Amino acid sequence: MVNLDTLLRQELEELKRHGLFRDMKRIDSMQGPIVVIDNREYVLFSSNNYLGLANHPEVIKAQVQASQEFGAGSCASRLISGNMFLHEKLEQKIADFKCTESAILFPAGYMANVGTISALVGEGDLVVCDKLNHASIIDGVRMSNAMLRVYPHRNLERLEDILKNASGYKRRLIITDGVFSMDGDIAPLPEIIKISQRFNAILMLDDAHATGVLGKTGKGTCEYFGIDKGVDIQMGTFSKAFGNLGGFIAGPLSLIEYIRNRARSFIYSTALPPAIVGGCIKAIEIAERGTDLRERLWSNVSRLRDALVGLDFDIMDTKTQIIPVSTGDVSSTMKASESLLNNGIYAPGIRPPTVPKNKCRIRVSLMATHSNDHIDRAIEAFRKIRS
Ligand SMILES: Cc1ncc(COP(=O)(O)O)c(C=O)c1O
After folding, report:
1. Comparing C-alpha atoms, which of 382, 359, 347, 223 is closest to residue 288?
2. Active-site annotation holds for 240
3. Model confidence over 71-91: pLDDT tens digits?
């Protein structure tokens, strides 16, 4: 008989031996720039709450009002009886924001990716992915049974090579992140669009970390490059700059209707609760109505990025609010993270399997709500790691 406890303990011990065991810090406050952990205050530099909307009073108020009016839960999938006024209102807002014909909501970004990809492609089809695409994209391809080919990060020659030899497939789907979640760099989207057109491939963009942030009005990677066509499927999430929960796909009506009929993670899961949807509607409205939060975010990014470069840290090719600070192997990364913590800065080390063994890092992420003083405290803590 299998002794599950012994089996699992052996594997967990193995993880611990390699410094790869994961546990969680518990936050006892809101996810603002300052958080409370173990009764001590830290400046938070690891949240995806880029615009600070998770604690915006108007968002919180909208969330409370939505549950007062529509109740706590939606209590069924959208196709049964979970489709409420607020879901449709939010979908219209997403389509308007992304300048697409239509949009569809999922309970999470992860589910938007796995559901959409596995609905669109299957056996006999090819999916071509950047090496650093998010895990939810890879999981979607695995579920689909399509052939997966991966090109080295942002390497367009290799992307072309793969497509040159892909004539035997029924559908060809290229998928790229807009902003890469662990490196903070941006996909060369204009060139990828040209390649997708040359090889007659469908193009899907995961704009999880760009939505709300990139481009003058925060529409994401397309707006950043001044592109208004060429991307067939735009994926996004409310869990990053919008400070909430829920994923979405924006695109032509035919795509949205197809997903509604075919994406299992949409069909077989309960719709988002009204409070969340009400909060997301308000978050989009705030992100759209001015540029002040984005301006504050970019000014914070420059302040920290310039200082880290001045301290001779390798911050890779980041162009965004995600700043990877290279720390080498697992042990030096955990030491660096511990040192930051001792100096009041919370920015955990990122280790395998999230990043390769020799590419561990502190993934620093900035928020519009960080003050200059918060950033200067981080700079000081990084200076101590250097000395
Ligand atoms: C690039 C990317 N895509 C998709 C997701 C999944 O989104 P969510 O956290 O909303 O499920 C994430 C978040 O972890 C992400 O970083």
Report:
1. 223
2. yes
3. 999 999 999 999 999 999 999
